[in-house]
UniProtKB/TrEMBL annotation, chains A, B:
SMART domains: CoA_binding. NAD(+) binds at G100, V101, G102, N103, L104, G105. This is Redox-sensing transcriptional repressor Rex. Its main location: cytoplasm. Residues 26-65 bind DNA. It comes from Actinomadura namibiensis. One of its GO terms (cellular component) is cytoplasm. The keyword Transcription regulation applies. The gene is rex. GO terms for molecular function: DNA binding; DNA-binding transcription factor activity.
């Protein structure tokens, strides 16, 4: 590898702030929506509006990917989809196992948004004998006893934990011991993992709390008028999520 | 109201950046965990670590609430819980209706995290005759035809849409026409709402995409070593979500 290649790798691999990484999926969602409408190029202002961020931030974020657009034309939608997908690692298939097939696990198993983003659910596991063998979204629920075997055989690299809170840490420990280093946790509990393992926790009530904040302001009447509420409303059309990731 | 009260209201109601609002639920979660362990006071460093942000940002966020802690002592956990809860509007009960009781709607109906945060689910609605009348988490599923009536009678202020994508906009239009101005959207579609209505969209695949980014870096071996992965891992213990809201 030449030193120039090294520098390029360095920029791409070390230079992307975590907050930018968190916004890339939001840009990608907006770009997919543009593709669906047959749009070939998009200005930074249009894309920023669709994603709910300001355009300076968008341009800065995309510059980390080495993507600067063309003056007067903007960004090529298809190429930008490719660049962001490559950056996020979505140009390859990620094999996912879901542990815990209660209502949430079932909802996740049937969630169309995973497959379309390069995530292939290759295993549904549970400890409850009464659900083992059930067919859910075209897959058969397997026993948690086979966890290590399934992870190894199917090349599972990301595990989704959707068990009750009490079971989550034990399951997580087994998953980590089996060599998995990426865990998405839906259980309402904080998981402890060794260095080198990424855990992301989804708290379904956080978005509700943010809505409550604005609802309270609106309920306050003229005295409680919240100038931010309008902004959220405007962004809400594109994606409320962006509000949460924009600083 | 005196002018001093006015200034206080102004600071509290107009001065909180949206990114701070998005982090308040994360601090609240960390504080609740401290309360569960019987901790009475917490330093900004400890609380920041538990929430996965840096302590300067935490102190700045809390200063927007007029909360500055005590030098050498830190923050009083109970009082800070009260302050943040009040700020977020969680000291009052919010009445929530869930529309669409597929797997996701059922999972949300049974989600303990709502009730403990001041959200009371007062209605489960669906259009599918075969589920109307079913008991889910102690509630009876009602027909979507009764939507307007239920919203008015029970004082529903936040609606959670968990319908299939194709039904979501129609449901949203009815909800908005019935006077609801806060919508949490789980359907994989972008909803259009008039000014003054807040929509927040939950995309369950976004967190997976962020995991994939780091997984890709880790898979790259020494050349692909990602210095950020360690940071995420460290924060992941407390809350991966914070990564998404910290700029």
């Amino acid at each position: 590898m030449t030193s120039r290649q090294n520098r390029t790798r360095d920029r791409a691999e070390r230079g992307i702030p975590e907050a930018t990484v968190a916004r890339l999926p939001v840009y990608l969602r907006a770009l997919h929506a543009l593709q669906d409408r047959g749009v070939a190029t998009v200005s930074s202002e249009e894309l920023a509006a669709a994603a709910g961020v300001n355009s300076a931030k968008l341009r800065k974020d995309l510059s980390h990917l080495g993507s600067y657009g063309t003056r007067g034309v903007g960004y090529e939608v298809e190429y930008l989809v490719y660049q962001i997908s490559r950056e996020l690692g979505l140009t390859q298939d990620w094999v996912v196992a879901i542990i815990g097939v209660g209502n949430l696990g079932r909802a996740l198993a049937g969630y169309g948004g995973f497959a379309s983003r390069g995530f292939r659910v290759a295993g549904l596991l549970d400890a409850d004998e009464s659900v083992i063998g059930q067919e859910i979204s075209g897959m058969t629920v397997e026993h948690i006893d086979r966890l290590e075997e399934i992870i190894a055989e199917r090349g599972v690299s990301i595990v989704v934990i959707a068990t009750p809170a009490a079971a989550a840490q034990t399951v997580c420990d087994r998953v980590v011991a089996a060599g998995v280093t990426s865990v998405l946790n839906f259980a309402p509990v904080v998981l402890t993992v060794p260095e080198g393992v990424d855990v992301r926790k989804v708290d379904l009530s956080i978005e509700l709390q943010i809505l409550a904040f604005h609802e309270q302001r609106k309920a306050g009447g003229p005295d409680g008028y919240d100038p931010m509420a309008g902004g959220v409303s405007g962004n809400g059309r594109a994606s409320g999520y962006v509000e949460a990731v924009e600083a």
